[in-house]
Write a structure and sequence with these properties.
The complex is a heterodimer of chains A (about 725) and B (about 240). Chain A is of the alpha+beta class. Chain A folds into four domains: about 150 residues, Glutaredoxin (3-Layer(aba) Sandwich); about 160 residues; about 230 residues, Rossmann fold (3-Layer(aba) Sandwich), CATH 3.40.50; about 30 residues. Chain A is built from 17 helices and 25 strands. In chain A, the strands form eight sheets. Chain A has a seven-stranded mixed β-sheet with strand order 9-8-12-13-23-22-20, sandwiched between helices. A four-stranded mixed β-sheet of chain A has the order 3-2-4-5, sandwiched between helices. Chain A is extended and about 135 Å long. Chain B is mainly α and about 240 residues long. Chain B is built from twelve helices and one strand. In chain B, helix 3 runs antiparallel to helix 9, helix 8 packs across helix 9 and helix 8 packs parallel to helix 12. The longest helix of chain B is centred in the middle third of the chain and has 28 residues. The two termini of chain B are about 25 Å apart. Classes of the chains: A alpha+beta (about 725), B mainly alpha (about 240). Strand 1 of chain A pairs antiparallel with strand 1 of chain B, so a sheet runs across the interface.
């Protein structure tokens, strides 16, 4: 039998060398394979990761996990966020947002995440182009009409110099006797040139707006419409008319710039007349072209979602959530909210709560709504609450609801009169919910905010409709205010609310007495709120948000039972509050504090929610708390040494929107109280203390290490020099 | 294992009795202190060590080779390796013992970090979760780099060559793997996979207060691989 033991040293080397090489290669391959396997199968998040932070900052809430588990369609979250080279605080915010987005991707196979750094212009542009393509079919009519308008204006600007020159030459025509018309023609020619220059500038602006991956069609449309209307109405039409007038030798007052254009004082020669008529014809033809394109521009349907997208993507850092047929944009700034004042004691650095998870989950839930809930603003008369007319509009809150995909409509059962006030218009049919569509009726006061009328509760016909709809399973948000009529006859709204354990005291108005240096003791109905009840999700989510009520009445609540649950939603607190019986609106500031009408616990409930037999209502006893003037009222504050204009009472809109979410059964959309951030900060150390610490650490610590080394060295030296026993 | 521990103890004692060990400790204390005050410790800043930990990971690129360069090279140079190899000790035990000794010294190097945590505690109320995970992450990164250093030290009798070789290999796991995904010739699908092996990215989660199983596996498998390779190199000396 042949021996396999190598005989020579070279053979042994080769054999053992090969053995080592193979085993080393095998080990390398094994480790690479193990890591590839781990990389492909073991997510770096979720259950395979321990979150040791005190607030479990990197873990998703149960609510979110439930939403993610129920996703059955693909979603994509793209972050357009600045990264790297940022100040510490900004970097922390950026990291927090990106970490959160990654966590969603790790938890659901239906979510794909991409991070695009704002510095990566090429990728950013290709993504924006992709978003544009998402809406391209809907945008086509508008884009086409804009292109046609530009083409028409381009043609006009090409022809215009020759026309202007022809007009100028006409003014120099030898046969033209009238000096005034000569001057006028020269003036018109110059005016035409100026107009064309302005038009070219407009076209350049339009070009810039459309020149990008996400063209600003609404902006371009507005500029083109205005430019065409201006050119047509203020130049082409009057000049064409004027030329015809001169050609006819009409002595009527001039059509264009009466102060500068003269009546013809001498006969216009035939040759000039012909030319004037020719130019007038050209102008008319141009006008016709322009009117055609501007009409097409006007009727081109606006793509509201795209317009919102363009506006929202104007923010620096955003998250874009792309779902089946929908795109939502969340500004990173929206994801942070100032924490409740005084929650953790006074702090130098203002803390912000991170609402990223709530907002992102909310966006996913909203995109999955099918059919989307219907919200109907129900008003008894007067100007519609959603529109441009009228003093008390609810456009802002309606817009917030539309943003999350809710269908928002308005309706009144009352016959209306037209603008002339002569004809009565039959009320339209009420909006009809689709099968399975959650519907919320927002019942507005008879005349919202009319302080002279003291905002009666809605009329009986409105209430009859609401009652009927609630019996069919819909829910309602009641907005009403105090009325002097309440002492004589019960308000219709009180009848419905009584069934839910809510008793509005509509004959009372809550007042607060304040002492001012200038005026001394003054009473006011303006009540500020920034502490919210924590046992009801609608209110709990508002933690720390300022809100204002300016005409609030108290609500009395029955205790909750098994069949009926009642919660306070909005509470005003203060030491000098009282509920004034039948107040005189014109002399509120002079009202005297009435301790007998003060609440025993120093607080009045002005908003309440109730649930009974599967029906839900929310009542807020202030007729104007959600109108645009309050929800959009802005104030200026100092942020990072810059003055920033910000909404003063965000709590008002938030309360409205959260109330509708709850009434629509969409609790998941409510930004549940921001998770405590628990940002632990280094204390305010004095300069001397800081310097001491620096010296101790930078000089003391290394010196101590060296000292220790010296001691060891000395001991070792002594031991070595000592002769062994 | 007992044998490995004996070797580790000898290695650690050697480091502790060496004045150079304390000079390195002092330099490391100065470095971490500068990182701490330069990147993290300011009035009102978040009381964490995340940036300091990240800075230390960069420091380790040079520190770990300095600790590991003499582990076996010195034995080869002085000839004491012959004594070890003729003793009833396996190559694996020698390698593990040497590496454990270096790890022991590395743990001692973390003392200044503990002092910095004490400063943070005195001036704030730090969240100890991220501090603990950060320390664990540093141990894993340190262990990984020391394993690479042990392997490099087994390859050469020259400490300088061992030092440079260690830095070269560590650079692959840091600078190269950081830059490679940005290279245009790398297919998009590979970019994330390549970044996975980037040590600083693997450490990032630890700094935040997270312990991801895959990161732990990455470091432990890396340590095991380089110690195995070092043992193979040592074994090859027997028949070379």
């Amino acid at each position: 039998m042949k021996s396999t033991v190598p005989q020579t040293h070279a053979q042994r080397r080769a054999r053992f060398g090969l053995n080592v090489a193979v085993s080393a290669a095998a080990a390398v391959v094994l480790v690479i394979l193990l890591n590839v396997l781990v990389y492909l199968t073991l997510p770096g998040r979720g259950i395979f990761r321990l979150d040791l932070t005190a607030t479990r900052r990197y873990s998703l809430a149960e609510q979110t996990l439930g939403v993610l588990d129920r996703l059955d369609k693909p979603y994509r979250i793209v972050s357009l966020v600045a990264r790297g080279g940022l100040p510490d605080e900004q970097q922390r915010i950026s990291d927090q947002v990106l970490d959160l987005v990654d966590e969603y991707a790790a938890r659901s196979s239906h979510i794909q995440v991409e991070h695009i750094a704002t510095s990566d212009i090429a990728r950013q542009e290709s993504f924006l182009k992709e978003l544009h393509d998402h809406y391209s079919a809907q945008l086509n009519p508008l884009a086409e009409s804009i292109a046609n308008s530009r083409k028409a204006l381009d043609n006009l600007t090409t022809l215009a110099p020759a026309q202007a020159q022809a007009i100028e030459q006409l003014g120099k025509h030898a046969a033209l006797q009238s000096q005034d018309i000569r001057q006028a023609l020269t003036h018109i020619s110059q005016l035409y040139n100026t107009r064309i220059m302005a038009l070219q500038q407009h076209l350049q602006r339009v070009g810039r707006l459309l020149d990008g991956p996400l063209p600003n069609y609404p902006g371009a449309k507005a500029i083109l419409e205005a430019a065409i209307e201006d050119l047509d109405g203020n130049f082409l039409a009057p000049v064409a008319g004027q030329f015809e007038q001169w050609a006819r030798q009409d002595q009527a007052p001039p059509l264009l710039s009466p102060s500068t254009l003269p009546r013809p004082t001498a006969a216009v020669p035939a040759a000039v007349r012909e030319s004037l008529l020719q130019i007038a014809e050209q102008f008319e033809a141009q006008r016709k072209d322009l009117q055609t394109v501007v009409t097409a521009l006007r009727v081109a349907p606006a793509v509201q979602q795209y317009e919102e997208l363009v506006t929202q993507l104007g923010s620096n850092d955003v998250l874009v959530v792309i779902g089946p047929g929908q795109v939502r944009v969340l500004s990173v700034l929206e994801l942070f909210r100032p924490a409740e004042a005084g929650a953790d004691g006074p702090q130098e650095v203002p803390e912000y709560s991170f609402l990223g998870e709530e907002m992102l989950t909310g966006a996913l839930v909203a995109m999955a709504l099918n059919p989307p809930p219907l919200v109907v603003f129900l008003y008894a008369g007067g100007p519609p609450p959603l529109g441009q007319d009228g003093q008390y509009l609810f456009n802002y809150v309606a817009e917030q609801l539309r943003k999350v995909g809710f269908r928002v409509e308005q309706w009144t059962p009352q016959p209306m009169t037209d603008r002339s006030g002569q004809n009565t218009i039959k009320p339209a049919d009420p909006p009809k919910p689709q099968a399975g569509q959650k519907t919320v009726w927002v019942v507005l006061p008879a005349d919202a905010g009319d302080m002279n009328f003291l905002a009666q509760a809605s009329s009986q016909s409105v209430m009859d409709h609401v009652r009927q709809r609630m019996e069919a399973g819909d829910n309602a948000l009641f907005i009403f205010g105090s009325t002097p009529m309440a002492q004589f006859q019960p308000s219709p709204v009180a009848g419905i609310l009584a069934e839910f354990g809510i008793t509005p005291q509509l004959d009372r108005l809550i007042l607060s007495q304040r002492v001012t240096p200038a005026q001394g003791s003054v009473s006011t109905s303006e009540l500020h709120v920034d502490h919210w009840p924590k046992d009801f999700p609608v209110a709990a989510a508002l933690g720390g948000m300022p809100a204002v009520f300016v005409s609030a009445s108290p609500l009395l609540l029955s205790p909750s039972t098994d069949a009926l649950k009642v919660w306070p939603v909005a509470v005003v607190e203060g030491s000098s509050l009282w509920a004034q019986l039948n107040p005189d609106p014109s002399r509120l500031s002079e009202a005297k504090y009435d301790p007998a009408a003060a609440p025993p616990d120093g607080r009045f409930i002005v908003g309440a929610a109730a649930e009974a037999g599967g029906r839900r209502v929310i009542a807020v006893a202030d007729p104007i708390w959600a109108i645009d003037q309050l929800t959009q009222y802005k104030t200026v504050m100092l942020v990072d040494q810059r003055l920033v204009s910000t909404i003063a009472f965000p709590g008002n809109a938030e309360l409205f929107v959260n109330s509708v979410y709850w009434l629509a059964g969409q609790e998941e959309l409510i930004a549940a109280g921001a998770r405590a951030q628990d940002v632990r900060r280094i204390a305010d150390i004095s300069d001397a203390g800081m310097a001491g610490l620096r010296w101790a650490v930078l000089a003391g610590l290394p010196s101590a290490c060296l000292g220790l080394g010296a001691v060891v060295w000395a001991v070792r030296r002594r031991d070595l020099s000592t002769p062994a026993a | 294992m007992h044998t490995a521990l004996v070797i580790a103890k000898r290695e650690l004692t050697c480091q502790l009795y060496s004045s150079i060990g304390y000079v390195v400790l002092a330099l490391f204390a100065l470095g971490t202190g500068l990182l701490f005050f330069g990147l993290q410790f300011q009035r009102g800043a978040e009381a964490t060590m995340r940036s300091t930990f990240t800075g230390i990971v960069w420091l380790l690129i040079f520190l770990a080779p300095a600790i590991s360069m003499r582990l076996l090279s010195d034995e080869f140079r002085s000839g004491s390796i012959e004594t070890l190899m003729t003793a009833p000790v396996s190559d694996g035990q020698i390698i593990v013992g040497k590496w454990l000794g270096a790890m022991g010294y590395f743990v001692m190097l973390m003392l200044p970090v503990a002092v910095l945590i004490g400063v943070l505690e005195a001036c704030g109320d730090p969240d100890y979760g991220p501090l603990s995970s950060g320390l664990l992450g540093l141990l894993l990164v340190g262990g990984f780099y020391l394993a690479i250093g042990t392997f490099a030290s087994a390859l050469s009798e020259n400490q300088i060559i061992a030092f440079l070789l260690t830095i070269f290999i560590i650079s692959f796991f840091t600078f190269v793997l950081y830059s490679l995904p940005n290279a245009s010739f790398i297919p998009n699908a590979w970019r994330e996979g390549i970044s996975y092996a980037y040590v600083n990215q693997q450490f990032d989660d630890f700094g935040k207060g997270l312990i991801a199983l895959r990161s732990v596996i990455f470091f432990l498998s890396g340590i095991a691989l380089f110690l195995f390779l070092a043992a193979q190199v040592l074994e090859s000396r027997r028949w070379r």
